[in-house]
Each structure stands twice: as C-alpha cells, then as structure tokens.
Amino acid sequence: MSAASGDVPVRLTARQVARRRRRESWSRNWADFRSHRSGLVGLIILGFFVFLALAAPLITDPEGVTLSGATGGVLEPPSREFWLGTDDKGRSVLTLLIWGARVSLAVGLLATVISMVIGTLIGLLSGYFTGKTGALLFRFTEWFLVIPFLPLAIVLATILGPSLLTIALVIGVASWPGTALLIRAQTLSIKERAYLERARVLGAGRWHQISRHILPNVTPMVFANTTLTVSVAILSETTLSFLGLGDPTRISWGSMLDDAYSIGAITTGSWWYIIPPGVCVVLVVLSFTLVGHAIEDVLDPRLKGRR
Questions:
Q1: Whole-prediction pTM
Q2: Fewest beta carbons within 10 Å, which of 143, 149, 225, 255?
Q3: Residues 95-125: pLDDT tens digits?
C-alpha cells in the first residue's frame, strides 16, 4: 500500500529482520544442498539408520538382544525366520544390528559434541588472545596432536573403565586438536577484519567480540567439520569395542565384530555374522562424509562452483 492511501508502513524490529534473514539464509542453503546428489544420497542413508535406531523398540523385541530371548540355533544361516541368520548364542543378527545402531550412533554423536565443544573453545581462545595465553593454548593443542590417537584412547578407556559414556568421553577428548587448529586459523583471519576493528574502537569487550562477531563467523565451519568428525567417532567406537574396551552390557556394531572375531566367524564361514555390521559401519561413515562435504561446499563460498 502507498503512503498516500493513509496506511502507515510496517516497520520491522531488528530481531524480526534478523529472523527473516536467517530464514532466507536457511532456504538458500537448503536449495544449494539439494543440488548435491552425493549429499542427498548420504542424507537418505543416514536418515534410514537414524529411523532404525529410533524405531528399534517398535520394530523388534527388546528381549531379542538378551540371552533369554534367543530363539534360534547357534550360527544358523539366513532363513525366512532369521533374515540375517543368528549369532553364536542363537540371537537374530538383524535384531542385533538394529539395536547396535542406537549405541553406535549415540556414542558417535556424543563424542563429536564433546570434541567440537573442546576444539571450538580452545581454537577461539588460542586464535583471539595473543601473547602467553594464546601461545600456551597453541602449544597444548600441538602436544595433543602429536600423541597417537588410538594408544591414547586405549589408555584412557582402560583407566576409566568400560562404559558408553567413557567411550564417548575418550573419543571426544582424543579427537579435538584438529578442530582446534581449524578454528584457530579462522579466528586469526577474522580478527584482522575491519568490522572487528570498528567494534574495538566503539568499546566492545573481548567477550562481546568473540561471542557476537567471531563465533558466528566460524560456526559454519564448525558445523561442516562436525559431520566429518562423526564418521571418525563412529569408526573409533567400533575399533575400541572390537578391542574389548566397550560396554559389555550393550550391543554395538563394534561389539558384534568383536564377538564374530572371537568365535572365528571367518574361518567357520559364518559370513552373515561379520559382514552385516561391517557394511553398516561403512555405510554410516560414508553417509556422514558425503553430507559433510556437501555442507562444507554450501557454507564455504570459496568451494561453490567446483563440483
């Protein structure tokens, strides 16, 4: 409506403008993401496994993972009753796979959150602060970076004891240095930009500069790196469980591989016990990797047009 008609133009508040811009940004990013076929394939695969993990109590019997719920013979091959055969205790391998998805995904996501929080915090502080504080944090990150990941994770898991929380904590604590170095490099670049200098001149404090200017600019990089780190965390959980350092009371894909190796599933020809969990690990890691690369391409304008 024109001003001559007597209608007063509606003025949006700063918060409403910010929300509108945020919605437009999300819509634009989603449209860019949909143009990535590999990213969509990864998202579909990931959604399928997330659905299995969430719907496990609805599509399978929770007693099927217990010894008392075993209804089949020992290492029966696939059949109409047991689509993926049974394990050495007579339990359905398909049921174990579905319930194992809950543990593997949960541990992977929790470990990634821990890694991202520690890495982002240390990366921001080591990049923003100069002098002894920044140098000390940078050296601390380098010290953690040169320690071999697997031996460190094995030592921590052995000391803290086997449990799902321990495995997630161990993976998160052992895998944050790469994120910290990435965020530090971004912070050093952003700190030299003109708008941050204007904020300092106007009297903005350090916390205001970090939380309102630097953190929002590094968040897309953190988000893209998160999806790539999840795949590493899931592989690490599988490795630690395979080595017998996982929670013995919970079923995961790693513990299934460990049990299959312990009973000699390869030498006895029980392929249905060792191949399915291995394939599930590969598919989930691949899906997170595809989604992560697609998100990185969408959020980083330097990568657009290089597909």
A1: 0.82
A2: 143
A3: 999 999 998 899 889 999 999 999 999 999 9
